[in-house]
Amino acid sequence: MLHDFYLGKIPHAGRCCSGVYAQMCTRGPIIAVVPPGKRVPHRTRADTFARLFEAVHEGVFVGTLTPDPLSEGTTEAINPFLKAMLGYAPGTTDERVAPFAPERFVDPAARQAFLGRLLTEGAVTDYLIRLRRLDGDPIWVEVTAHAGPSKKRGVSQVEALMRNVSERRRLDDQSRDLYQQLLQAEKMAALGQTISGVAHELNNPLATILSWAERLAERNLDETSRRGVEVILGESERAARIVRNLLTFARKRQSTRSMIDLNQVVRETLALRAYEQRLTNIDVVTALASGLPPVFADPHQIQQVLLNLVINAEQAMLTANGRGSLVLRTWHDVTHKAVVLQVSDDGPGVPTEVRSKIFDPFFTTKEVGKGTGLGLTVAYAIVQEHGGSIRVESPPSGGASFTVQFPVSSVEHAARPRASSGSTERSLDGASVLLVEDERALATAVVEALTEAGLHVEHAGDGEEALARVRQNRYDVVICDLKMPRVDGMTLYRAIATASPSLARRVIFVTGAVAGPEAERFLEESGCRWLSKPFRLADLLRNVREALA
Predict the structure, then answer these.
(1) Domain 2-166 part of CATH 3.30.1440.10
(2) What is the pLDDT at residue 511?
(3) Largest CA distance in the chain
């Protein structure tokens, strides 16, 4: 035990009542007993303890403490490691170092709790406290200590071992953050599945409302009724965009790159934040250059980068000012053959010492529990994977600008040949269409609209009924929901492809949920046209004409 020896005085020999010599310390119990006539090894044990005291890689404190909240106690001996741990120079005298002084504690209440337990119970083991080094930096310290009576009343003699566990705490926090990230990933996966189902149920009635409103808009209506129909059309499309945005962001997906319009990604991302920005008094200004060359990228990953930058800017401005102004700019950097996106805010800015590590994993300036330190790291990785770069600038006057560059693809992607106006405008009279849709209200609206356009339309309520009709009748076009009970759209398509390969090329899919990875692969492999619900009847008719052409 630490209190079984004393390290601060030179030992001497004394005779005890039994006639043997006892090597003793001026304070503390007997540490060696030697028979009479034998030489007492005065220095051997003392030297051993002295070497241990100097070399041990834990702080050692010997001194006195009192319950007085203003008293810093006295220091009789401390080892060099404790001096270094607390930021003192090696030559500092022991008496000037007071590790348990009030000013050393980050939390004054924690000091009183520590002293109360140590002096009341007489010992603590691995007691965690947070101290300030001489330079003001906080460190986490574990204390194992023993307190006993001293010659002075109300004063306790204390021997303590002190261990710096700041690095262990940091690793524990990282592990906790990783665990939270895993939990969040599981939640997002479950949320994506839930939202996909909910979106399908929402988009079906939205598609019905939109279809009927579109049909009403084509009729001769009075001014009041026309305004009402236009409002229904606009709000239905707005609701559909909200559902699609949620689906796009929430669900897990494989990285799929294509030629994208960066300005369109900016607009869609801002639409996700529009409501929250209105509530929190964030003004948004966009300066998006027209005629930007397309970028070969995954639009969903780019949206993730932009969303992270926007939310970080919002939080910084709200924390500092309670409101803010956010500016998003895009331009074409011809010199570097890049498309540039810049997100600027009027928040407190990014200090110089933070900029060099702002993209480091787990680095965050947010309060505990409000940031994992992974957002900008992931953003940095995504930009790097796309062959781009990201940097931060922050002038002394305040505010911060994150600038992201994406290379312009050197590959010329030929535009898809457009069908001639004669083929796309071809008459639909007499063409036979099978509509496979399990939502009866939507099916009724679509059947009537297609019939009015001159098509001969039959309706099947599910994939099983559709299979029976395809085997019995001949159709020019099949319009099919992708997600249906009993027999889904993909199974129906494969059966059609086996029975009539020519008809399989004229299948048009509609879906109320954003296609997942499996459905995306299927649509790509099949080459089928497809529309997301709610769709405009004009878009559906255009796809029917193209299929017939």
Answers:
(1) no
(2) 79
(3) 128
